[in-house]
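Troubleshooting: if your tokenizer reports a length mismatch, compare your output against this known-good record of 184 residues.
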Amino acid sequence: MARGKYSKAISDRSGMEFPYNEMVKEWNGSFVHRSEFERKHPQLELRTRGGDAEGLLDARPDRTENEIIAILGPNPFETIAALSGIINVSEQGHGRSTGDTVRFRGAPSTSASFNTPQSFDGVTGTNVAKAAGYSITVGKRDSSGNITQTDNFYHFTVDTNTATSGGVSGGGNNCSAGPATLSA
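Known-good structure output:
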């Protein structure tokens, strides 16, 4: 048996004899000469990857919120001219669009219903609180037909009554505006 620099070893790959101090161990445990050494192929050690993107368990689509009533300020209705059925409505930051149907109601009552708005300038509160509501146009309309202030005002034409003098506010306190489908 040789010792030191004269030692020999047999390669596991080729079966040939090589100096022992020139031998190396491969990734698979084979004892080979450095001329026969093969590195481990990168595809043998794949990096782990996270799973593919998936939807959440029991996911539900976003729901659509129901429309609710908006409480209007005191005396929110205003006639624009005598013998006109056009009524401006003051509702801060309403976010409504022209063509929306809005139903007007008076203050809520204790019997889970709404009172009728107060009558004003020849327009009855029952006509303003029509169950089917009114189609609105965004903006405040003046007596000459100009439309301004679209953020906080919209107007509609009342069905049967017309104003007596025009420029009169009314309706009372705690009137509300909301969808025609809302029930008390």
